[in-house]
Every structure is written in C-alpha cells, then in structure tokens.
Amino acid sequence: MHKNLIAGQWVDGQSERVNLNPSDTNDQIGRYAQASVDDTLAAIDAAEKAQPIWASLSLQQRADALEFIGTEILSRRQELGTLLAREEGKILAEAEAEVSRAGQIFKFFAGEILRPQGEHLDSVRAGIEVDTFRLPVGVVGIISPWNFPIAIPAWKIAPALAYGNAVVFKPADLVPGSAWALGEIIARAGLPDGTFNLLMGRGSVVGQTLAESPRVKALSFTGSADTGRRILLSAAPHLTKLQMEMGGNNPLLILNDADLEQAVDVAIQGAYFSTGQRCTASSRFIVEKGIYRRFTDAVQEKLRALRVGHALDPQSHIGPVADKTQFEQNLADIDASRNEGAVLAFGGETLTRETPGYFMSPTLFVDADPRMRIAQEEFFGPIACAIPADDYDHALQLANDSPYGLSAGICTSSLKYATHFKRHMESGMVMVNTPTAGVDYHVPFGGTKGSSYGPREQGRYAVEFYTRVKTAYTRA
C-alpha cells in the first residue's frame, strides 16, 4: 500500500482506496492510504515545527532542492506520464506534456528563490531609510483537483516551498497515484522532515480539517464552486489567507471574419481535448450568424474524425471520462440539455471499447438558448454548445452573461474587435485565435466573478499569496 508522508515518515492511514484505470477498470493501479483527522493534525504540527528550519536555509540550498525535484520529474517524463494517463484518462501525449510542465514549474521557482523581491527606499522624512521585504506565511495547506493530478499540485507546492513555507498537501481522492509519485520525489530532495507532508484521503476529512485549523495560515484550493464556498466559511473565523480557483463556463466567440479552419481547430482543442475536463475548456461557442452554419457543420465534421479510446493507445485523440461518477453526471447533463430544448447535433453517446471504461463521444449542442443550464453552469466533460449572435456586440454581451469569468477566447481577423475584446471581456484570461484551454506557467493564472478568489497563481505573481510583506524603518 502507498502510505502518507508525515514528518518525514511514511505512515499507514485509517483505511485505503483502490485506484482504478478509467480506460480499463480491470486495471488496478494501486492501493493508497486514507488519512484521518488525527493524521491531518499531526501533519500540521510537523509543518509548523519544520517551517522556520526550512526558511532559515540559504537561498542556494532551497533552490538546489527544487532544482532536484524538477530535474527528476523531467527525467521520468515517460514513466510518470504513463501513470498519469492510466489513473486520470488523459491520452499519453497530453499526460507526458503535463509531467513536463510540472518539472518546468519546479525549475522556474528554483530560479525565483535566487531572485528575492524587496526594495530599499528613502523615507519622506530626513535621516530615515525604508526597506521592504517578503517573509513566508508559515504553514500552507494545498488541496488540488483530479483533472491535472501533477501539474496543479506542482504550481501550488513549488512556490509555497520556494518562498520558505511548509506544506500539507491533500490531492484529489480520485487520483492519488501521480500525487504520491510527486510526493516521493519531494521526500528525497533534502527538505527538513515535516517541510512537506502528503495526506491522501477524503476532502470532508483532510480538507475540512485544513480549512478549520488556525495553524494553517494560507490555503490554496482548486475545485468546485460549492466546495470553495464551504472552505471560505470554514476558514473565515481564523482569517486564513485563501486562494481558490473554482471553474468556469468559458465562451469562445467566432466572428464572421474569422479564418474558419483556424476557428474550428481552436474550438476542438479548447472544448474536447483532455476529454473536456479542464476548467478553462471552451463550453460556449458564440458564433455570428453569418458564419454560424458553416462553423457548426465544420465542427461536426472534425468531431467525426476524432478517435475516442484507451488513454495509452497512440491512435486515441480523446481518452475516457475520469470516473463513473463524472461519467454519469455528463450523461445526466446531456439529457437535461435535450429536455431544455437544445438541439443535439453530434455525439452524446456512451461508447464500447475493447476494455471496460468510461468512454463517451464528444458532444455538440446547437441553437442553445443563453439561459439554459448548458450556457450558465460548468459541464465538466467533452460537451459544448453553439449559440448564434447577431453581431460582435451581441456576442460580447452573451459571453459576459455568466456567473463565471475564468478564460474566454475570440476568433477574428479584426484588430479592432480583438483589442476591444481583450479590454471588455469579463474574465481573468483572454485568448485571441488560440484555445481557451492552454496557459503558460510563467504568467499569472486566475479569473473573475465566481471563478476565482484571492491572489493569482503561477509565475512571479505567486509571491503575492505565498509571502507577507514587511516594512522596516531605520534612522541612520
């Protein structure tokens, strides 16, 4: 059984979880420990004791540790990518790309350790100098989702460690394998015992304990909006610093002047790759009427050419849905959309393959009403809808009519509309002629409205969440 890591020791849990391959449910990946409340409290205690020791190490020692982690991840790209594909269902090429990103993230933040931020200023008062510098916040709780089981943990853990914090990490219960492999690498990187702790288990047990603890000074969460709200209520009494990414219903505008072939490619990549299981996936194709039928017909033609299959099959373009629960939810969402009056133009079917798994065809609804659930809520699967728009202004209005605001895209050859869209689209990230799903690790990530809460993730902007600023005055 794969154990939890607490205070530098691998320890049993109160129970265990069997990890199954969604491409082949006969394939058991392994058994993983399930942490208890007491385990979580012990990990918080260990992190609290280790944090000042870790923060006191030299910049070079901390940078070397993160460099070691990044280098090993990259050297094991194929092995870890295969594990990720088996447990989460991404096709192997996508899984290996995700592993590479995780390694690159650790290397990026190894470099950031050697570029500490601060200022030396003259005071407005004569004879006084002012210094500002950043300090770690202390113990950081990290709760990650199942759809990016190594990249999202990496972009949270790496900056937390880089800026001198100690970590208690709870991965998604559905995908413990990639998290355990990452934790095992970190455990060999020379960090003081307790600096990094891995707790696999239920969110209602481990996550709730982290959210309720006054000793957890900052908590970074990626998951559903409902869970994010519960974390907010639990953490508020202790004034815990929060960073939460909670999904989206992301629009892709297609204007009459768009390059049709490019627009279809952008739509397919954004909506359906990674089985649509991305918080930045394109959910709504908002299409000007002059190109609407040509675009929707071309999307269907492209979908017919996509192969859905086993994640490790090199012929597969799209893998399975991650588990039975999500699979059944996707089918229920498709039925609900049909009942509301959206026209099912393509897909929406369960598929049978050589191995038992959670396979479904990519799904396109057309002529959707912007008030329908499919146009307002997050459907976390290979499901998208097309909505006709009268013109650009109408398309932008429809795009902004959402409780979410994570990522949004536009396909157009007009510099005028592209520039206006970048300024007036109510989302944290905007894409022009490129898929809504697909971001870089060295720039800020996050949204507006119901999509995000707290400081941005990734890149140099991560320093805002994982540190606190101190100002010091000195009379010469």
From TrEMBL:
The keyword Oxidoreductase applies. Keywords: Oxidoreductase. The keyword Oxidoreductase applies. It comes from the Bacteria. It holds the Pfam family Aldedh. Residues 10-471 form the Aldehyde dehydrogenase domain. The active site is at E245. Signal peptide: none annotated. Belongs to the aldehyde dehydrogenase family. This is Aldehyde dehydrogenase family protein. It comes from Marinobacter halodurans.
